[in-house]
Amino acid sequence: MSTNESSEAGCRPDVRPSNNTCSQKELSVTASVISMTVGIFSNSLALFILVKSYSRVRIKSRVSFLLFASSLVVTDLLGHIINGSLVLFVYSSHKRWETFDPQRVVCNLFGVCMVFFGLSPLFLGCAMAVERCIGVTRPIFHSTVLAPHHMKMLLALTWLLAALVSMLPVLLWRPYRVQSSRSFCFFHMEEPKDWLDVFLPLMFSMLGLVALLLSIACNTLTSCALLQGRLRRKLRCKGTSYHIEMICQLLAIMLVSCACWGPLLITVIILSTRTKDENASLSLLMVVRMATWNQILDPWVYILLRRAVLRKIFMLLQHCWGSKSHKLHHWQCSVLRSSVETSNSGASPSNCLCHRRFPLPDTAIKSIT
């Protein structure tokens, strides 16, 4: 901690500045401002698209999905605004927590916001995956038993659970601590005093990992059910398109959450169950920065993986494949024409099918007649 204080003092005008320390501080502030700006813009754009889709859709399953998706984007947007403002305040105060936060009020608020806006997207993604799994595998139960107010209650429960977990350290008199980097507050994982200091970060990580694993399981079942229904032609084209769009978005959200939050959750478990490590603060800061990218990438899932965009991609791929199929069609016709010219008998039923699929040229028709 004394090293950080001296490094901060090195950036003040009354002491000769250290170019390396000051440049790192400016780089951190610039990265925080860019991340906050991009996150607010991305989530605002995604929220506009989701609200516009929500006002036009009339399918019940689609309405439930858009409700959870809009709530996820709103949560990410608030997380960028609140956490980003706290980070900028800490950097503007030169990380002097003892000066501007002697009662640890800001630190506790920072820790509560980090845990709440971290667990909420994981819980919401899990709830979306469970809802879609029930809607696809048990459509009758979903349409008759699960009413819209049940979805709203589930949404409220996810937020309530995340808020309860984030408030537990304050309620149990285990306040959040300033980390070694002095740029954020989190659980007390360095030299824990008793079992509560170990239990709280473990509970945070285990709940996040359970949400991720449940999302993976439900999305896998949903994808298999959609593929099976597509092969058996039990789903109508319109319903299938909605399902395919939703499952693409769910799979993308799951991959983003695993890539961004997986390292943080595993690192917290490792740090809370072993002795203090010299590189612990650096590794924790790196995985926290990786987790913040989850709130930036989530909205782009809804911006890019929409039906209109997916349809254009499909048409582009179909156009590219069309040139190959066109050559294949000419090749099959030439083979068929040569076989007809060498045959003196009438066409069999199988050949008639080929005639319908590949129209014969006039010379081939004359040779048959």
UniProtKB/TrEMBL annotation:
Q: Which organism is it from?
A: Mastacembelus armatus (zig-zag eel)
The root-end lineage is: Eukaryota, Metazoa, Chordata, Craniata, Vertebrata
State whether keyword Cell membrane applies.
yes
The record's Gene Ontology cellular component field reads: plasma membrane
Q: Where is this region: Disordered?
A: 1-20
Q: Which GO terms describe its biological process?
A: adenylate cyclase-activating G protein-coupled receptor signaling pathway; inflammatory response; positive regulation of cytosolic calcium ion concentration
Q: What is this protein called?
A: Prostaglandin F2-alpha receptor
**Which residue ranges does the record assign to the G-protein coupled receptors family 1 profile domain?**
42-302
Q: Which UniProt keywords apply?
A: Cell membrane, Disulfide bond, G-protein coupled receptor, Glycoprotein, Membrane, Phosphoprotein, Receptor, Transducer, Transmembrane, Transmembrane helix
Q: What family name appears in the similarity comment? A: Belongs to the G-protein coupled receptor 1 family.
